[in-house]
Structures are given as structure tokens and as C-alpha cells.
Amino acid sequence: MSDHRHFIVHKPYGYLSQFIYELKRKKKLLGELYDFPMGTMAIGRLDEDSEGLLFLTTDGKMSEIVRSRKTEKEYYIQVDGIITDEAALKMASGVEIGVKGTKYLTKPCKVSRLHQPPNFPPRQQKIRDDRHGPTSWASVTLTEGKFRQVRKMSAAVGFPVLRLIRVRIGNVKLDIGSGEVKEVSNFDL
Fold first, then answer.
1. What is the DSSP letter of 12?
2. Alpha helices in the chain (DSSP H)
3. Is the Cβ–Cβ distance between 140 and 91 less than 8 Å?
4. What is the C-alpha separation between 115 and 157, in angstroms, rounded?
5. How many CB atoms are closer than 10 A to CB 124?
6. Cβ atoms of 67 and 180 closer than 8 Å
7. N or C, where is the chain less crowded by C-beta within 10 Å?
8. Distance between CA 15 and CA 48 in Å, rounded?
9. DSSP letter string over 7-37?
10. Residue 79 reports pLDDT greater than 90
11. CB 151 within 8 A of CB 80
């Protein structure tokens, strides 16, 4: 029997996917959401401006399973403008993005337009004023996770991301509210 503990978190906008931040600027950290046990780590990160499903664990081996190319990660993105079928197809086929100063061709993935906006509460910080034009939503499902990859892919096809929410990792779907934490016996991917 394992003594490791596992958590599912709905990371809110504005939080870092870490527990320690040593730079001078004050940041919101995951440890403010719950009293996690010593040695808890985030598996895969969401940047400060992103929201959604995040796994935390005290088992480092679990990180390799979740981050492997066998495990799908699905994101809902709100983009500037009405995303076209052509742009979605181009993203799904793979686009060139910059990663650590070099060009990288993303692996094929699944991209589809969402015809209805998802039922998420408004973000705490307003995204922008409606007078700046329309927005739309898409689903992006991939098995890789380069730094800010989904944002870079969407921008590469002309539709910058305004809001990004990870809604699924493997078989686990986001089913808790923003800022909520749920302890689980395993991640059942």
C-alpha cells in the first residue's frame, strides 16, 4: 500500500503552479488553496494566466505517467475573433512554433470549434471589452506539452488566446469549481 497522496485542483486564474516563489514580486501560490502535505508537487504546469485541471501528488513516478505522450490533455480556449475551420485544421495538422529559441513543428492533435461557449463562470479579471470584436471558443486535445504550446499554436494560425482552461487529463475531467481541491486515491487515467 502506498503512502502517497494525490489531489485534483481547479487552478484559478492568477495562481502559479508551484509552492515556492523566491522573486521579490508577490504571487499567489497553490499552497494558499489547501494544506497540502510536505513534498507535494504539480504534475505539468499551467501558467499564471491559465486555469483548470491540475494534478498534484507526492509520488514523483506518477508525474512521468501523466506527462507521457500516451496521456491526452484537453484545453478549451477562447480566442480573439471567430476561429475558422481552416485555422482549426491547420493547428490539428501541426504548426511551427518557437520553443527555447528554436523552431518546432507541433505533433498532430485534435482541434474543433465549440459552437456554444462552455459554461464557466466569468474570469475574475475581465478579459476585454466586447467593443473590441467577437471571440469564439475551441477545444484542443494534445499529447505533448511544450512551454505555452496551445497559446503559441493558436497565435500561429491568427487567433490569439484570450482565455485557456484545461478541462481534461486522460480520463479525468474537470468537475470542481475554481480554487477547489479534491483528494483522490489515484488519477485513474
1. P
2. 60-67, 85-93, 149-156
3. yes
4. 19
5. 11
6. no
7. N
8. 5
9. EEEEEPTTEESSS---SSS--EEGGGTS-PP
10. yes
11. no
Number of H helices, E strands in the chain: 3, 13
Contact 97, 106 (CB under 8 A): yes
CA separation, residue 164 to residues 23, 59, 118, 127 (Å): 25, 27, 12, 11
Residue with cell 512521468: 64
CA distance 24 to 11: 22
Catalogue the active-site residues.
47
Rounded CA gap, 78 and 96, in Å?
A: 21
Which one is predicted more confidently, 54 or 25?
54
Residue 153 CB partners (closer than 8 Å, separation 6+): 91, 95, 97, 106, 140
Contact 173, 188 (CB under 8 A): no
| Confidence (pTM) | 0.93
Residue with cell 501541426: 94
The pLDDT of 73-78, averaged and rounded, is 97
Can you tell me the distance from the alpha carbon of 127 to that of 125, in angstroms, rounded to the nearest whole number?
6
Asked if residues 186 and 106 have their Cβ atoms less than 8 Å apart, the reply is: no
Higher pLDDT, 76 or 69: 76
- Residue 157: all three cell numbers together: 494560425
List pLDDT tens digits, range 112-148: 999 999 999 887 777 777 778 899 999 999 999 888 9
